[in-house]
C-alpha cells in the first residue's frame, strides 16, 4: 500500500502496464520466499476438528458478522478500486502528482492500521459503530474537495486512514463473533473481505458506466449504511460479549 501502488503506477506511466505487472510479480515472489525463510512454523497447542470449526456457522451472530465484513469491504472497495481513475478524471491530476497522491494514501493506511488497533483496544463497540458514519462523511466530503488538488489531498489522507481502520474493524467483529474457532473466523474474514471487494468493485464499475466517476461514493454510502445496520443489530444480539472484549 505504501510503496507498491505508487511505484507500480510510476512504472506504468514511465514504461508500460506490462512492466508494472512484472514488477508486481517480482515483489510478490520476494515476499513469498521471505515468508518461507523467515516466518517460523508455530506448533498447534490445541487442535480443533473441522466439524467444531464449521459449527460456528450455526450461530446467527456469525452470519451477521459475515454480512458486516462484506458490507464494509464493499463500501471501501467501491471507491478504493477506482481511486486512480477518480483522481485522474475528477481531480485532473496525473504523472508524479498522482504517484504522490497514491503514496500519501499508502502512508495514511499505515497510520490507520496503528490507529484502528488502538481505538478497538480502548472501545471496540464505539469504534465499530462510528466507523461507517465517519467514512460516510468523508465520502460526502469528496464531492466538495474532488475538483481541487489541495483539499482533495486532505480527503485522500482521511480515505487512507479509514480504509485501514475498516480492515481492523472487520477482523475484530467476525473473530469476536466466533471466539471458539479463531483460525476459522480469520479465514471467514479474508474470504468475506474478498467477496466484499468483488461486490464493491462491480457496483462501483456500474455506477461509473451509468452515472460517472464522481458518483462512485454513492455505492460506498449505500454499503456503509448496510454495514452500520448490521453492526447495530449485532451489538444488541451479543452486547455482553463485545463489552467484555472491549474492556
Name some characteristics of this structure.
2 domains; 0% strand; 247 residues; 11 helices; mainly alpha; Growth Hormone, Chain: A
Task: Report on this structure.
With 247 residues, this protein is an all-alpha fold. It has two domains: 1-37; 56-246, Up-down Bundle (Growth Hormone, Chain: A), CATH 1.20.1250.20. It is built from eleven helices and no strands. The chain has helices at residues 4-14, 17-38, 50-54, 60-80, 83-89, 95-122, 124-145, 149-177, 182-210, 216-237, 239-246. Helix 4 (60-80) runs antiparallel to helix 10 (216-237) and helix 7 runs antiparallel to helix 10. The protein is globular, with a radius of gyration of 19 Å. The two termini are 31 Å apart.
Q: Per CATH, which architecture of the largest domain? A: Up-down Bundle
Residue fraction in strands: under 5%
Poorly predicted runs are: 242-247
Number of domains: 2
Stated plainly, the CATH topology of the largest domain is called Growth Hormone, Chain: A
Question: How would you state the average pLDDT, rounded?
Answer: 86
Indicate the multimeric state.
Answer: single chain
Look at the structure and name the CATH superfamily of the largest domain: MFS general substrate transporter like domains
Could you say which structural class the secondary elements and strand pairing correspond to?
mainly alpha
Question: Would you spell out the secondary-structure blueprint of this structure?
Answer:
Blueprint: H1 4-14, H2 17-38, H3 50-54, H4 60-80, H5 83-89, H6 95-122, H7 124-145, H8 149-177, H9 182-210, H10 216-237, H11 239-246
Helix pairs in contact: 1-2, 1-6, 4-8, 4-9, 4-10, 6-7, 6-8, 7-8, 7-10, 8-9, 9-10
